[in-house]
Amino acid sequence: MRRLFIILIFSFFWISAKAQDPQFTQFYASPLYLAPSYAGGTPGQRVVANYRNQWSMVPGTFQTFSLSYDHNFVHFKSGLGLLLLGDVAGDGRLGTTLAGLVYSYDITPNPDFHIRPGIGFYYVQQSIDYTRLIFGDQLLVEQDPGMPLPPSVQPPGNPAVRDIDVSTSVLAYSDNLWLGFTWDHMLRPERTFYGDDARTPHKFSIYGGARIVLRGIILRPIEESITTAFNLKFQDFSKQLDLGLYWYRQPFVFGTWYRGIPLAKQYPGSDAVAFLFGYKMEDWSVAYSYDFTVSRLGFGSGGSHEIALIYTFKVKTRKRYRAIPCPTF
Asked: What's the pLDDT at 131?
């Protein structure tokens, strides 16, 4: 009975959370997922890989994978990128797969200020394995412990739902300041397996930050800076604000975040304190973060683990390029 109670409690959290998009604590370490405007955000080419295991001690919860590649076409003032994302949740293996092409264009009103609009086109698929689901009518039947559950009278729906989607964004930035806006799910793709009218709600994100350079200028070769950043998200009836602070002293990065400060209704288990440690070299950087859940899930969730790996290809160009500022990883 206790095991059933635990399953029901976490099932409630799971259903509530799946109404929202997958998310990364290190959202600036998954730039193309944050906004199409970040395509071409470095002088040359960039490859980014992300992995997140949310609520690691709860069986069948969230695992999210992301892989992206983007290229900066300096002479055309444009950035082009590819994004792949996979999200798996639950013992029923509810999965979301996304493949997208993103584009951005750099507008320069003056040499110290840039405006970068972007657009993304996506193919989205949601799938589920009905053979691994347990329905309510199966739990109501009395039977001996250890015996297999009887079949459910609930008819299975479609095993997969496919649709297309579009997102747009705009990013304004200078050397050490940036502010952006993203509108995701403009086409509101289908997300139901039973043919009823259930579509993905729009998502709006406002994000920005500031970086204070402490060292690394003129005769100080060791780079050091402090960066503060935020990400405010609205989706359906949920609102979530992430606030963070990073300290970078070459080659190490340390950071802390409060994710999910409750401005209004949000899904249970979304709030957490996150701690980050990173190591940055000239061409590549790696960062690990751990989320400690401070909601009702508490220690029972096991927290969330996340790792990000970024590799930037060297490029030779005579033209000075102002990279998009963001927290250093």
From this structure: 64
